[in-house]
Amino acid sequence: MNYRKEELDLLCASGEVIWIGCKDEGDKEGKIAFFLASSKSLYEPFLNGTTQEPTKHPKLLKLLEEGGASFLTRLSRETDKPPSELIPDLLELVWEGRVSNDQFAPLRLHANVKSSRWAKTGSGLGRWYATSMLSEEDAYSAQGEEAAATESPVLTWVNHLLKGYGMINKELTAKAAPFSWDTFYPMLKRLEEWGALTRGTFIKGMSTLQFTTRELSDTVRKPLPVSSDTSSTVLSSADPANPFGLIIDWPQSVEGASFARKPGNYLVLKGDRWLYWIENNGKRIFSLPGSHAEVTPVEEQAALLKAAFQSIIRRQGLVKISVDLWDGETVTDTDAGKRLLQLGAERDLKSLVFWSN
């Protein structure tokens, strides 16, 4: 399915989708969560005081809370600030989780253009609004105890995390949910008592409590079927199927690798083995220690990586992939790089280029 940025803006402008920002102290990049407007039980916890720190821009926030959704030009007049100076303030409120926009264009533009061009955008960036406008009075205060127990936001998030990741532990809730582990644990324990969930050690080497459904528990304990298939699987690092960086920590023994769950980074798998880590759409490739990639014949390594590159090209709609480094070495100086040349790669100075087939 081809993605077009305008379609996301239209979904936001129509009111069907909302987005909320978050940036923890010390983070270089903020995170954005998208929600269906109808999924209030998922996003409402982000609106109810999850950020206790005082806002950096109380006057601007109050203006949005009292005046409602506003275009940038109106806010500029009312604050007596040019748009180029007002945008950074609005973005700081975005990362506090207190302000959003009925389009996604402002965040996209912020990531791709210089601040000097903001003044030329006029009001073509949707309306800014306080996220508190999305919250109503306590939706659960009028419900009985039984309804609250089965329709609480915590239970909604338990189901949401299980659907997306298949398992819940302390690390996942800290990184992907609006509630602490101390809030989740009583609900997980209750579901275990009811027979809906089971706890155990489903990922080897993890000492923390892990909860999953009984069906998934039975599935993960079964050995993978033996197959003579030599093909590989290319998995985006941001895919929920990738447990690293969420449920478990990234490997510590890959020198030079910059592990992150972000577009352009991939895991190359063969069966149940993680063989390679690909960064920045192929710029850098790393072999995983213990994956036996280092003892695999160079011809097989090259063929596997070539197939992975073509998969990424097709998936991302790229014209080409340029490879610079293999395990920290200039790729053209490696045996695998020389084999890639024989398999159709083009040399571009010290890089290898693969074109779309």
- The count of DSSP E runs of length 2 or more, i.e. the number of strands, is 17
| Mean pLDDT over all positions | 84
What string, H for helix and E for strand, traces the elements in order? HEEHHEHHEHEHHEHHEEHEEEEHEEEHEE
β-sheet strand percentage:
15-25%
The secondary structure category is alpha+beta
Straight-line distance between termini: 19 Å
The radius of gyration over CA amounts to: 24 Å
Low-confidence stretches: 137-150
What's the SSE blueprint?
Layout (H helix, E strand, L loop, with lengths): L4 H9 L3 E6 L8 E6 L3 H4 L14 H10 L2 E2 H8 L3 H13 L3 E3 L3 H8 L14 E4 L14 H6 L2 H13 L2 E2 H7 L4 H13 L3 E4 L9 E4 H7 L12 E4 L29 E5 L2 E7 L4 E4 L10 H19 L3 E4 L1 E2 L2 E2 L4 H8 L3 E3 L2 E5 L2
Parallel strand pairs: 12-14
Antiparallel strand pairs: 1-2, 3-5, 4-5, 6-8, 7-8, 9-10, 10-11, 11-12, 13-17, 14-15, 16-17
Helix pairs in contact: 12-13
